[in-house]
Design goal:
The structure holds two protein chains of two kinds.
Chain A lengths: L1 E3 H5 L9 H13 L3 E7 L6 E11 L7 E6 L6 E5 L9 E6 L12 E3 L2 E3 L1 E3 L14 H5 L14 H4 L5 E6 L10 H12 L12 E5 L3 E4 L4 E10 L8 H9 L7 H13 L3 E5 L6 E6 L5 E4 L3 E4 L5 E4 L4 E4 L3 E2 L12 E8 L1 H10 L4 H6 L5 H19 L2 E4 L2 E4 L6 E6 H8 L5 H10 L3 E5 L2 E6 L9 H12 L20 H12 L3 E2 L5 E2 L27 E2 L3 H14 L5 E13 L2 E13 L1 E3 L5 E2 L2 H15 L5 E4 L9 E11 L2 E9 L8 E7 H5 L17 E10 L4 H12 L3 E10 L8 E10 L8 H19 L2 E3 L4
Parallel strand pairs in A: 11-22, 12-15, 27-30
Antiparallel strand pairs in A: 1-10, 2-10, 3-4, 3-6, 4-5, 6-9, 7-8, 13-21, 13-22, 13-23, 14-21, 15-18, 16-17, 18-19, 19-20, 24-26, 25-26, 28-29, 30-31, 31-37, 32-33, 34-35, 35-36, 36-37, 38-40, 38-41, 39-40
Chain B lengths: L1 H17 L3 H12 L4 H6 L9 H39 L17 H15 L3 E2 L5 E3 H4 L24 E3 L5 H10 L5 E10 L10 E11 L4 H16 L5 E8 L2 E10 L16 E10 L1 H6 L8 E8 H9 L6 H4 L2 H4 L9
Parallel strand pairs in B: 1-4
Antiparallel strand pairs in B: 2-3, 4-5, 5-9, 6-7, 7-8, 8-9
Helix pairs in contact in B: 1-4, 2-4, 5-10
Classes of the chains: A alpha+beta, B alpha+beta.
């Protein structure tokens, strides 16, 4: 809502002469809850003066510049070079003097193609008036003032354009401030000033209104109709035009301007019909499905049963609360007018305007209106039409009214106010706030009965009154303090934090990605029969479904980085994935990781491979306390299609699959990209015991190496398990230290070398003992895996 | 005999002068001082000496032995020192070559901000809670005094999944969940950081963004408490010297409602492009929990009162780290992520 300070001065006594005072008003309004985007003078320019071009010749070195001699009321004439096509001898112009500050530039004396220029002749655009408010003539050249404009005077005052404009960004509950009058009440409350009455005075003719109305829907609570005849269509007076411009509405002609002017002034949108295009009747009803209407902006609209329309009994002639119809609009030839003032269901108006078009009118209807204002507005329009369009006002008014116009009475106590604010405001200060707001209050003991006028639709419960007291009394005057609550330290998700820190310490960058992906991507990197969750109304097709794997998001981030030449990408994210199963929506907490490129950097590069990411998985699971309880499960046939079947596996803890790790399938990318994801809900469900010290042996362990040749296909982990099993509990550790295939080893076989550590808790082991165990191990391996054993010379 | 000893000493000293290798020293030690060495050989003739001569010769022999031994040890020490110097020289590397860099990981700026906020409120006794991102209309809107038909819950603005389910538009949904879960138990002190979603995506809005919600409910909670708490929070989070401004505003779930501005930390309030020349930056929404909200979620507004607040994490992260474009937070370019690899300044 743009506030013109000239306009509001009609109703409240304030003085705004310059930008500083304007900013002060804007700040004061902000402090009571009305934020603003900008506060500027309508014409934010200095050092302007009215001048007359007394001589105008062409510039000798230009085909379009003029050399103007300008009289500005001083003895000395000003020489100004001007490029406007309409610069000519005899016209009155706006001169920006040397040093003048205009919205886009500062004027400086100078030489233009060898000719001295001591100022600038201005167009309205250069003075900061938007193009949409200007005539074609105004847009093309410098502003031409009337010939009787007083040379040497201030042109802004002369044009009645000395006005301040504050563009407010209002809260949704303050529909009452979408009017100059509402603003006046608010400003009045701040500065303790009274609001002046609205000027309503017009004479009605003898002629009696002969016009029918009918309301056929509960979505219209109030409908008023008046007729005015014999209007003269012409240009509006300057004050109306300038105020409309200040408030951002383009002047059209006096009649149309008056309907807009009253809407701005009182907040009640009106609609004027050319009564000669109607059939003597106005009807409010819901539209028929598919009903057509061409609106004022010459757009053919197709309506639904949810839209409220105005009809003249034969056809729809207006989209209620949003925009009128084209063929009943006011034209230059209009003589007689039907004025409609109404209140419609705000929700319906909002739905229709969201669907079809947002307008100044719909913006006000959807916030709710005060029925008292509706009556005021229709009469205010009659007043102005009589005054500025020579209208004859037909006697009588058609009224359909189901509204409540009574003021609201709300009870509250002084104590309740102070209890909620946490501050003792003196009783008389509280009463004063209500008075300043234009509410009346009746005190009985500690109880206050506050009577709130209808215009404040936002106030209905005692807490609303407390807000008003806080607002006007000033929240700055209330001292903040901490609540006195029992001392304790709060709880937080330490698990996630520690996991995050662990992953970071492993050299991974934490990401934060979008959970929305395309439907096509939603099931990437998972294999299940869970349904994809889709949005009803997505913004784009690329983001219309919820991811089932975080890897999908990480992979997109990887692609983004790859395209920008970032080759070493090691990422992790802790987040959610979503699916639907049997009408149930499920959110899963997961951790995922993606690695590619080099893991160690500089001279000592090491490419990420499967074992790097496997290392990450193990580091994390060990850290979380699952050491010795997890394993990789190979299920080549059962992997999601995005995984390389020969370099991927499921991760299981206590024989329950909790995640997946592996290489991205070469069909997805040619690069070596490795990913993993684990379900944290599943992991956390597996209890971990407390960290506990276990006594270590005081006797040194004995190391023995064991080298053997087995079939290539046998996983090394399986051999290690078999060694452990055969060796029994004196074997403390089995570590593989070499894997070899190729020269010297038969095709289809591999050589594995293990280092075995034996240790007893209470004694030093003898060679004999260890050799016996080794013997047993070798026998088992030969039997089970046909392993060819080569005992290495120790 | 004295002559013999002296000339042997002479010889030994001369040979020791010639020594080039450390092993020669031991050879000389054996040659002159060993059991089969020259000194022993000479002293074998001691038997032929008189009683008076023996101690004199004995003491001379000892003197000579010590002298030779000293020289040998000196030489040994010299060689050892030289060998160490050589070894060190040989082992000298170009320490300016780059280190074996293990990748440094980094913490996402939004999670950094979340952890910082959590720490502040946890120290004040708040519990950090979480709630579903796939939320019901009931908790996201209805229980927060946003009945059907309210402008703030338009299909236009929210990502609905069904008529009933949507991606939560605000972490305020957790307010209702917390109240319902506590069933008139007080005090409630909680914050809930998390992801939220709205149906808009442009240069200044991401369709997914972070919010943190806070809620306190007890008997006798007042606006002054809200003010005091947020002052404490903002000063700890953004700086001791900042000014706060409580600006009356409107939210359906609080009454009275306030937006909280903080004096611009870039220009100090003089006006700059960050604060759009106003000197203030809006950072929080807050208010006293609306009596309808208390009522609807099981708290009698006659007995209990409370305050709630919420703030956008993306903006906080942007302020804190000078990030100029909200989209940087979600594109996850590693050149961006890598910059958040150290501890924050306390």
């Amino acid at each position: 809502m743009k506030l013109s300070t000239n306009f509001v001065k009609d109703y409240v006594d304030i003085s705004i002469e310059n930008e500083e005072e304007l900013k002060k008003l804007a700040e004061d309004m902000t402090r009571v809850g009305n934020e603003y985007d900008s506060a500027k003078m309508l014409i934010p320019a200095t050092k302007l003066v009215i001048g007359e071009i007394v001589e105008c010749t062409m510039h000798p070195d230009s085909d379009h510049l003029h050399l103007c001699t300008v009289h500005i009321g001083k003895e000395e004439m000003l020489h100004i070079v001007c490029g406007a096509p309409n610069a000519r001898k005899g016209i009155k112009v706006i001169v920006a003097l040397d040093g003048a500050v205009l919205p886009e530039k500062t004027i400086k004396r100078g030489i233009i193609r060898g000719q001295e220029s001591n100022g600038m002749l201005c167009s309205m655009t250069e003075l900061g008036i938007e193009q949409k408010f200007l005539t074609e003539k105004q847009k093309e050249g410098i502003e031409e003032l009337p010939l009787d404009a007083p040379v040497g005077e201030d042109p802004i005052s002369y044009l009645h354009m000395k006005d301040g404009v504050i563009d407010f960004d209002l809260t949704a509950n303050r529909g009452d401030l979408l009017s100059i009058l509402g603003m006046a009440y608010e400003i009045g409350a701040i500065y303790e000033k009274e609001v002046k009455p609205v000027d309503i005075q017009y004479k009605e003719s003898k002629e009696q209104l002969d016009f029918a109305i009918k309301v056929d829907t509960e979505n219209c609570q109030l409908l008023l109709v008046k007729q005015v005849n014999n209007v003269t269509i012409k240009e509006s007076p300057d004050f109306i035009k300038n105020r409309l411009i200040a408030c951002g509405i383009r002047p059209i002609n006096n009649v149309v301007d008056i309907s807009n002017y009253v809407m701005l002034e009182l907040g009640q949108p009106l609609h004027f019909y050319d009564s000669d295009t109607l059939q003597g009747k106005l009807e409010v009803r819901m539209a028929k499905e598919g009903e057509k209407l061409t609106t004022l902006d010459n757009n053919a609209r197709i309506l639904s049963q949810e839209d409220i329309v105005i009809s003249d009994g034969t056809r729809a002639i207006g989209l209620a609360g949003v925009m009128g119809g084209l063929d009943t609009e006011i034209t230059d030839n209009t003589k007689n007018i039907i004025i409609e003032a109404a209140i419609f269901n705000p929700v319906k108006i909002r739905k229709t305007s969201n669907k079809i078009l947002r307008s100044e009118a719909s913006n006000r209807f959807e916030k709710g209106l005060d029925p008292n204002r509706t009556y005021m507005a229709i009469e205010r329009a009659c007043t102005l039409l009589q005054q500025y369009a020579d209208a004859t006002i037909v006697s009588g008014m058609q009224v359909y009214d189901k509204t409540n116009k009574e003021d609201k009475k709300i009870h509250i106590t002084f104590e309740k106010i102070n209890e909620i604010l946490g501050f003792v405001i003196p009783d008389d200060e509280i009463i004063k706030v209500f008075t300043r707001l234009g509410f009346t209050s009746k005190v009985e003991g500690r109880d206050i009965e506050v009577t709130v006028p209808q215009r404040r639709l936002d106030i209905s419960i005692p807490e609303d009154l407390i807000e008003e007291v806080g607002r006007i009394y000033g929240v700055d005057n209330i001292e903040g303090k901490l609540p006195e609550l029992p001392l304790k330290t709060g709880t937080y998700d330490k698990y996630t934090r520690e996991m995050r820190n662990k992953m970071i310490s492993l050299g991974l960058n934490e990401t934060l990605s979008y959970i929305l992906v395309s439907e096509k991507e939603a099931k990437n990197f998972v294999k299940n029969d869970n349904e994809i969750i889709r949005l009803l109304a997505p913004l784009t097709e690329e983001r219309d479904s919820l991811r089932q794997s975080i890897i999908t998001s990480l992979y997109k981030i990887y692609e983004y980085n790859l395209a920008r030449g970032n080759q070493d990408v090691c990422l992790f994210e802790i987040g959610k994935t979503f699916y639907k199963k049997q009408e149930e929506y499920v959110e899963e907490n997961k951790i995922a990781c993606l690695m590619t490129g080099n893991y160690t950097l500089a001279l000592h590069k090491e490419q990420v491979d499967f074992y790097t990411i496997k290392g990450i998985v193990e580091e994390l699971l060990d850290y979380l306390g699952y050491a010795g309880r997890y394993s990789l499960v190979i299920q080549k046939e059962n992997l999601p299609k995005e995984f390389h079947p020969g370099q991927s596996a499921y991760i299981s803890i206590n024989n329950d699959i909790v995640g997946i790790v592996g290489k991205v399938h070469p069909e997805v990318t040619k690069e070596d990209v490795f990913v993993m994801e684990m379900n944290l809900d599943k992991i956390k469900s597996k209890k971990v015991g407390k960290m506990k010290y276990k006594e270590y042996s005081k006797f040194p362990g004995v190391k023995k190496d064991l080298a053997l040749i087995v079939e290539d296909k046998i996983p090394s982990q399986e051999i290690a398990m078999a060694i452990k099993k055969a060796a029994g509990n004196l074997l403390k550790e089995v570590e593989i230290f070499d894997v070899y295939t190729g020269k010297g080893i038969e095709e289809g076989k591999k050589s594995l070398a293990y280092s075995l550590t034996f240790e007893a808790q209470e004694r030093t082991l003898t060679d004999e003992e260890i050799n016996q165990i080794l013997q047993k191990v070798m026998e088992q391996l030969e039997k089970k895996y046909h392993a060819e054993i080569r005992k290495k010379e120790a | 005999m004295e002559e013999q000893i002296k000339s042997m000493q002479e010889e030994a000293m001369q040979e020791l002068q010639q020594v080039q290798e450390p092993k020669e020293l031991n050879e000389l030690r054996v040659k002159f001082l060993g059991k089969k060495g020259k000194l022993t050989a000479i002293l074998r003739g001691m038997g032929a000496l008189s009683k008076e001569e023996r101690p004199i010769i004995g003491s001379l022999a000892n003197e000579v032995r010590d002298a030779i031994e000293n020289i040998i040890q000196e030489k040994e020490a010299y060689f050892a020192k030289q060998a160490m110097a050589e070894k060190l020289e040989k082992e000298t590397i170009d320490i300016t070559l780059p280190s074996k860099k293990i990748r440094t990981g980094s913490k996402h700026p939004i999670n950094r901000v979340i952890e910082e906020i959590e720490d502040i409120f946890v120290s004040m006794g708040y519990d950090v809670v979480s709630g579903p991102e796939l939320e019901t209309d009931e908790y996201c809107f209805e229980r927060l005094n946003l009945p059907k038909g309210h402008p703030a819950r338009d299909m236009q603005d929210s990502f609905y999944i069904t008529e009933e389910y949507l991606l939560r538009t605000q972490t305020s949904s957790v307010q209702a969940r917390t109240m319902m879960a506590n069933k008139e138990k007080t005090p409630i002190r909680m914050i809930c950081p998390g992801k939220t979603y709205r149906r808009e995506d442009d240069a200044t809005h991401s369709h997914q963004f972070g919010q943190v919600e806070g809620l306190v409910i007890d008997k006798d909670i007042t606006l002054a408490h809200l003010k005091g708490t947020l002052e404490e929070f903002v000063k700890r989070m953004l700086g001791e010297n900042l000014q706060l401004r409580f600006r009356p505003s409107y939210f359906p779930f609080t009454e009275p409602s306030y937006e909280v501005d903080v004096s611009c930390f870039k220009c100090g309030g003089k006006g700059c492009n960050l604060c759009k020349q106003t000197g203030w930056i809006e950072i929080l929404g807050s208010g006293m929990v609306h009596p309808h909200v208390l009522q609807m979620n099981g708290y009698d507004p006659e007995k209990y009162s409370g305050f709630a607040f919420g703030t956008g994490l993306d903006r906080l992260a942007m302020f804190k780290y000078g990030i100029t474009d909200v989209r940087l937070l979600y594109t996850n370019d590693v050149r961006f992520l890598n910059q958040f690899n150290r501890k924050d300044v306390d």
